[in-house]
Design a protein that fits this description.
By secondary structure, the chain is mainly α. 65% of the residues lie in helices and 0% in strands. It contains ten helices and no strands.
Length: 233
């Protein structure tokens, strides 16, 4: 890797973390390119070298983390091919949950009601834009934009994509009679919902026990809140 590429990678990592921190603390309406640049330790002009506006930056961050998460999901599913449904599900839960707990600010963003998936842009992060950074541009960005009927919240978007990638696993669960066939369509939103609930619950704890929390997620997903009967995880 060349020095230029290493510098760019370091800069983009700092921008990613700064954007997540600012969005998690202030939400979209309370964030602007200037604040993100300051938190990242870069000039605001540097951001505009890569992104035309705040929406494009947010889209990049969401896509970056989504890609990382889905790579983990796909790798886990591939590595567990041949195993029965129940252990595959448990391994998947821990992989997804570990990723989420490692990125708490992304977690806050993805589950925030005001985070909307912007329309995709043909602009790539390494392309320069003709837009000049200025204070009036930041003020315009701060105004809350109405949601386009064709857009989705980040949480809904993630759930829909997970439904597609996890469909073969849940189909295996139906085949092995671990999931009722008429309830298979609810598995993805239920999966995301239970993980979300456990993550929120865990935020109040000073120390997390990821393994124990994953055991709870697996149990609640398959058995609800019924008492455990032996080792059914």
């Amino acid at each position: 890797m060349t020095l230029r590429k290493r510098i760019r990678e370091t800069t983009m990592n700092e921008v990613t973390l700064a954007t997540e921190r600012i969005l998690a603390e202030r939400g979209i309406s309370g964030s602007d390119m200037g604040s993100i640049a300051k938190d990242a330790g870069v000039a605001v002009g540097t951001l505009y070298n890569y992104f035309s506006d705040k929406d494009e930056l947010i889209q990049y961050i969401l896509e970056k983390r989504r890609s990382e998460l889905f790579q983990i999901v796909q790798t886990t599913l591939i590595n567990t091919i041949g195993a029965e449904y129940q252990p595959r599900f448990r391994i998947l839960v821990e992989a997804v949950y570990t990723f989420m707990t490692s990125h708490p600010n992304y977690l806050k963003i993805i589950f925030a009601s005001d985070v909307i998936i912007p329309k995709k842009s043909n602009q790539k992060p390494n392309q320069k834009t003709n837009r000049s950074p200025n204070r009036s541009a930041d003020k315009k960005e701060d105004q809350q934009k109405p949601q386009d009927p064709g857009t989705q919240t980040a949480s809904t978007h993630l759930t829909c994509e997970l439904a597609a990638i996890l469909q073969p696993l849940f189909a295996q669960g139906v085949k092995e009679k671990r999931i009722a066939e008429d309830l298979e369509c609810y598995c993805a939103p239920l999966f995301v919902g239970i993980i979300r609930g456990m993550l929120i619950q865990g935020m109040a704890s000073e120390k997390r026990n990821v393994k124990a929390e994953c055991d709870v997620i697996s149990h609640v997903f398959h058995f609800g809140t019924f008492p455990k009967k032996g080792n059914n995880q």
